[in-house]
Amino acid sequence: MDNLLDLIKRRRTIRQFRQEEIPENILLELVNLGRLAPSAANMQPLEFLVVHEPEVRKRVFPWLRWAAYINPAGNPQPGQEPTAYILILVNTKIRQNGYEYDVGAAAENIILGALTQGIGCCWLISVDRERLKNILGIPDGYKIDSVLALGYPAESPVVEDFQDSVKYWKDETGVLHVPKRRLSQVVHLNRFGNRISG
Ligand SMILES: Cc1cc2nc3c(=O)[nH]c(=O)nc-3n(C[C@H](O)[C@H](O)[C@H](O)COP(=O)(O)O)c2cc1C
Q1: Pocket of ligand 1, candidates 8, 10, 13: which has the most ligand atoms within 8 Å of its Cβ, to mutate?
Q2: How many CB atoms lie under 10 A from the CB of residue 22?
Q3: What φ, ψ does residue 126 adopt, rounded to 5°?
Q4: Are strands 142-151 and 120-124 parallel, antiparallel or unpaired?
Q5: Is the pTM of this model over 0.85?
Q6: Measured in angstroms, how far is the CA atom of residue 13 from the centroid of ligand 1?
Q7: Which H, E and C letters describe 90-101, residue by residue?
């Protein structure tokens, strides 16, 4: 298995997917990783809706918004759509607010677990929640927090040192470049303002 540190460094958001089905048992194992994530006060307000049937996928796809900085260049083209989704739902009878930390922990478990299986992911919050609730029969009392769009990658984005903008871009060959602030820009050593070089 890949080393966890390498996986974390290698992970990039994927928005173009090969049209190869993800086995259901793998999707359920990914939910299992989400289930086991840290949870504030161990309240566990999250549930997970797994979508892999092609007809349902087709109905979900139009209500997702991709890569706003480069719209529409970041949209999955026909034949590059996600092959599965995991919707992260909040049971609002358990928690009405403060669940976002739990979502973050569960989502990252799922995303990194997927990567160990060669599966890429785009975590989406720009989604039409009302439409998705109707399509998927999600009742009142549940909120859609995020949609994890999954599939075997058909692109290989690369990370870049931050220059003057957080905006990712596509080059002339279609490769996505994702700027990240450097370690020296985000770390303070022992006291605020004490920077490391680099
Ligand atoms: C909470 C959250 C919400 C996001 N929502 C969207 C989204 O709605 N659509 C999208 O295309 N990407 C979305 N992303 C992906 C980010 O654009 C992406 O993480 C960022 O550009 C950095 O790229 P990287 O994931 O490869 O490091 C989201 C990421 C996070 C953490």
Answers
A1: 13
A2: 21
A3: -85, 80
A4: antiparallel
A5: yes
A6: 7
A7: EECCCCCCCCHH
Among 73, 81, 78, which Cα is nearest to 147's?
81
* Residue written as token pair 């992911």: 121
Instruction: CATH number for 4-155: choose from 3.40.50.300, 3.40.109.10, 1.10.10.1800, 3.40.50.980.
Output: 3.40.109.10
| Ligand 1 contact, 88 CB (< 6 A) | no
Contact, 30 vs 110, CB < 8 A? yes
Token pair for 63: 């209500």
pLDDT per position as a tens digit, 73-131: 999 999 999 999 999 999 999 999 999 999 999 999 999 999 999 999 999 999 999 99
The residue written with tokens 């478990």 in the block is 109
How confident is the model over 7-55, as pLDDT tens digits? 999 999 999 999 999 999 999 999 999 999 999 999 999 999 999 999 9
Domain ranges for the chain, please list them. Answer: 4-155, 157-198
